[in-house]
Amino acid sequence: MMKLFRMLKPYRVGVVLVLFMVLVQALSELYLPTLMADIVDKGISNGDIPYIWKIGGLMLGVAMIGMVCSIAASYLSAKVSLGFGRDLRSRVFSHAQRFTLKEFDQFGTASLITRTTNDITQIQQVLTMMLRMMAMAPMMMIGGIIMAVSKDAKLSLVLVVVIPVLALLILLIGRSALPLFKAMQKKIDRLNLVLRENLTGIRVIRAFGRENSERERFDDASGDLRDTAIRVNKIMAFMMPAMMLILNFSTIAIIWFGSIRIDAGQMQLGNLMAFVQYAMQILFSLIMVSIIFVMVPRASVSAGRVNEVLEAIPDITDPASPTASRQKGWLEFRDVTFSYDGAEEPALSNISFEAGPGEVTAIIGGTGSGKSTLVSLIPRFYEASEGSVRVDGVDIREMKQDELRLKLGYVPQKALLFTGTVAENIRYGHASASDEEVRRAARTAQAAEFIETLEEGYDSPISQGGSNLSGGQKQRLSIARALVRRPEIYIFDDSFSALDFKTDAKLRAALKQETQDSTVLMVAQRVSTVMDADRIIVLDQGRIAGIGTHAELMESSEVYREIVSSQLSAEEIAG
What we know:
Strand content: 5-15%
Number of domains: 3
CATH superfamily of the largest domain: ABC transporter type 1, transmembrane domain
Strand order of the largest sheet: 6-9-10-3-11-12
CATH architecture of the largest domain: Up-down Bundle
Distance between the termini: 70 Å
């Protein structure tokens, strides 16, 4: 947790002011019992009414100072902790954006969401308490002990017995609760995962009538979290009564022994009343520490989880001095092999090919042959295990990631849109694109026709994930988003699968005109989509089973012939 608190440097003035306000508040609260003792022993005992008014007015002034300092400390501590939480969330979010897909696979999306929200909230709350309670408690305890001893040193022996007992109780409870707090955070991750899967997969769940089983799965995750939370709360529920019991017995002991000392003439009544208040302040400061002990273990678990994210080094980093590219739009794979973590066999083995501007290179193969994995290596979503991927004659590991991705127009296999308007989603590819450029990209992507039928046209709203559009409409907007960028290299990762054959053919014809100066890499399942490509790469179990045009592969590649015969009739093949 202390690693994270280094981020408090911008707020050090606020922290110092909080500590100063807490100190003044503590001093005012420590001074009040002494003033009360003076009223009893000197004012009431002697019947000195002016003295009572004088000290009473002083007590009121001291109490007002304490109240003002308490309000100011609360405001400043909240401001510091909320600012710290905002900065920490921003840092975690920014760091996570640099992660490769490998790190996202490692942490899990649900866990990253929990760490950015719930975990940081826990740390933020504890920081507020630490600035107030953790600073207040030792001041009140040390000051209370000094003042209690000054009133009656022998009676202070009661505190010598009570304080270690309370401290031991706090320690035992803290040790019992820490493992449960760790378990709770993991179970919150699990609950978030189940909830996220249920909400994003609601159509599939309903289509297969799995609502009851999903409800049971959610109830299991929720019940597991509930059971752990109940165990934690049982421990905490035992703590407060136990402390109050010790506190009350301490008060009885102080009054008992104090009355004996008053009867013997060794102590005055006002001093006994002040001593009881100081004892309460000391013991309540220990209770404050116990509350912190309840929060700190959970926050320390949260801090550890946040630190795991911040300390995770992205698998892919930018070079210190990137190499200048010498060509435009050239793509080359040189003997590339790639394996996923924990996989027994490589997903890709010894992949080598070249693709240049003005050419369409298509990649086809069976399910699981490595098509999407291959194109994921170009934007450096993953890093090649062996060999090299070169863009414009430069190994992409020697290029800055931002510089590399500016050269690419990527259309993912699953079309993803963002909340906003149609135009904003297209401009996601090029923020400063003009209205005409947006419309031109939409026309090329065969999206203009359906956009113009929408009530607000290009200003029509897109709901989360594009759920108010069909699959084909989402794909066309994704393609328009890449086209408006006008990159050197286009990557279409099975981006035409939701289109009908007529729209597919019109789109490919329009793309030829729009991308004639760029390199086009096209992953596809349909033979009809790739037949006219300048180069077709056939993948089979992560290896190249053939490279050439449609006619050449029909002669040389058995794998390609099997794919063609499974999709086209004999007449279509002959034609």
